[in-house]
Amino acid sequence: MMRATLSATMMRIVRRVLGAAMLAVPLLAVSVPAQAQRVYPSPEAASDALGDAIARSDHDALKGVLGPNYRTLLPPQGVDQEDIYEFLAAWARHHAVERAGEDTARVAVGESGWTFPVPIVKRKAGWQFDMPAGQREVHVRRIGRNELVTMDTLLQLADAQQRYAELAGNGRYAAQLVSSPGKTNGLYWPSSSAENDSPLGPDALAMGPDTPPNEAFYGYRYRIIAAPKGSNAKYAIVAWPARYGDSGVNTFILDSERQFYERDLGTATASRAAALRTFSPEGWTRVAEQ
Q1: What's the rounded Cα separation, in Å, for the pair 220 and 252?
Q2: CB atoms inside a 10 Å sphere around CB 248
Q3: Where are the domains of the chain?
Q4: Model-level pTM?
Q5: CA 21 → CA 6, 42, 51, 84, 246, distances in Å?
Q6: Which residue in 55, 115, 201, 273 could disulfide with 106, CB within 3.0 to 4.6 Å?
Q7: Are 40 and 127 spatial neighbours (Cβ–Cβ below 8 Å)?
């Protein structure tokens, strides 16, 4: 139901590619002593070594290229072989080293401008992938991806609200995401027939305010709240990070007029967002009209 961004797709693919390399070796390999991370005479040589290790799904080679902690780039879920082929196809279409000054370079993959998150940096002995910097970049990209997906999701929830009002709601908008058992008073309800399909799919089950952080939809929780008093809006939808600073930073609100607002609620995001029952634009930044 929900759409992800291209950069999010590439990040998911590369993490699963690395995961495939890890799964391709016996479990006994875990007990092998840590292999020193290699340095290379040029960033191009480092890039070639990375591409070769990924193409061969070679766990030991990846440890040599990225270091023994490369597993921190791995996703918790399983490996999709189609994702691996997609990444390798993107690599075959285009890959190049892009310099970012005299001492840093990045590997661009595919034709979208996406770059491998771990930079190549110049050391005394040569060029080497900088895993700590890569881990920080993965974290920043994850937050950026989650926030973009969240804004897109809010728009799709607004579409679902319109469908609800035209069908089950008889002109009224839903006040909750998931319907009460046996009812159709929310945007989602289980259905056994296409004729009774809900406006929202089962992704809604991972969007609620009580969803465990590890299961929250792209790291965000959602709730339908009352619209600002005196406005033409009929409702508002708030989305906030399940783990502030980790799965996201900004809290977003979209009203029925498709006006976006955002605000950094700080370390108290969970409690402040949970306390919202109606929306007042004071203190919020308007992002854009959609």
Answers
A1: 10
A2: 27
A3: 6-129, 139-289
A4: 0.78
A5: 23, 24, 12, 10, 26
A6: 115
A7: yes
